[in-house]
């Protein structure tokens, strides 16, 4: 099997001290059989070239042999929380994270990261109690990578999400990523706000409540976004990073999609 990763960007010409900045246009990755490399790469290039955020002047594609058998996991169950405003979204983020074992200080710190206009390239790694950020590089962050979904599981997931009217690349890929992150025992929850100004649904995920989509997590047009992985206070940081970035993980079984539920229904239905 191989891991195939794509990243498309536009050079902005602006430079900071370390490197020239580039504007992220799109990205995708998966774990595939060698036989489909050509087809997947073609699809990734088509996708990178036709993105609404602009025409990239650079598309990086990395194809890497996977030398250890991927860990096979089940995707998190999916729900969408009933939420009609950005203020309510903030209350629900706080409530879901507190109930997952994240402290109020850590939630406040995470919100600053997730709504920062200076969008990080990866995610912040944050201690769930102290709210301390422990990622080695605050610009790069941590990239959950070497992840994918089997052909069969993708078919099933697409059908399930189709019925709920949420079957898009964005939802499927965010769910696969969140499912890998949640299967790391040291991670207790994740918060994600898309950096796409027009994409206003984010999520809070955890083993406890599953993948909870939060509409109106930001207002349309807001130029900010970010991801935070909350880890147990004294976890071995380097092991967590090695798992999230390097351990191949393949979703090969799919949990249910429970549709649109109220906060109380979601809290009453937790999964452990
Ligand atoms: C991103 O990749 O930009 C984040 C996507 C969040 C998806 C939330 C959803 O609609 O389920």
UniProtKB/TrEMBL annotation:
GO terms for biological process: biotin biosynthetic process. Its cofactor is Mg(2+). The keyword DNA repair does not apply. Pfam families: BioW (PF03744). Pathway: Metabolic intermediate metabolism; pimeloyl-CoA biosynthesis; pimeloyl-CoA from pimelate: step 1/1. One of its GO terms (molecular function) is ATP binding. InterPro entries: BioW. It is an enzyme of class 6 (ligase). Coiled coil: none annotated. It catalyses: heptanedioate + ATP + CoA = 6-carboxyhexanoyl-CoA + AMP + diphosphate. Keywords: ATP-binding, Biotin biosynthesis, Ligase, Magnesium, Nucleotide-binding. It comes from the Bacteria. Its EC number is 6.2.1.14. Transmembrane segments: none annotated. Homodimer. NCBIfam families: PRK01322.1. This is 6-carboxyhexanoate--CoA ligase. It comes from Candidatus Sulfobium mesophilum.
